Amino acid sequence: GVFLYNHLQQKVRNAEALAQKYKQQQEALSAQLQVVYEHRSRLERSLQKERGEHKKTKEDFLVYKLEAQEALNKEKQDSMNRYGALSSQHKILKNQHDDVKKQLLDLQLQHNSLKLEHRKSLESHSQKLAQLQQERDSEVTNLQDTVFKLREESKLLRKAHQEVHSQLLNAQAQMEEFRQLKEALQKMPGLR
């Protein structure tokens, strides 16, 4: 009985030790499980937050997509309007270009005609100028001859003038002598 009692007591101690060991393992597992639960809870909250942010991002993206589509449509419409305006302006400018090109051709023809007339006129003027230069040279020669003759005549006239002046002075001197003689005669009583 004692042996059986000791044997049973040994088993009880072993069982208690085993129970204590299992209890410690359970507590450790409970702690680990608590950590896992908390981690899971954090993950769920994070996931919920991410879902909310994803939903908000998706809504924002849809709004952005809608706005971008509207902006794109508006830009497309503006581009079409600008293209229409530019196309119309291009047609106007093309017509103006054609008109200017035609005017340029007309002006080139007119320029060529005027150039020809100018060349003819220049040749005619050159001939007239040569003729006028010849006439002028001849006239200058004639004038030089005339000036020479006039100078010679002037010398002769100056000489004649001096002679006349000398004669005049002589005549004046004679007149003075006659006057003095007349006065002297008038003063003489016998000749009165």
Automatic annotation (TrEMBL):
Top-rank lineage group of the source organism: Eukaryota
Family matches, as InterPro entries: GOLIM4
Cellular component annotations (GO), alphabetically ordered: Golgi membrane
Record's keyword annotation contains Coiled coil: yes
Keywords: Coiled coil
Coiled coil: 5-60, 90-142
PANTHER family assigned to the protein according to its UniProt record, in alphabetical order: GOLGI INTEGRAL MEMBRANE PROTEIN 4 (PTHR22909), GOLGI INTEGRAL MEMBRANE PROTEIN 4-LIKE (PTHR22909:SF23)
Protein name per its UniProtKB record: GOLI4 protein
Record organism: Anthoscopus minutus
Gene this protein is translated from: Golim4_0
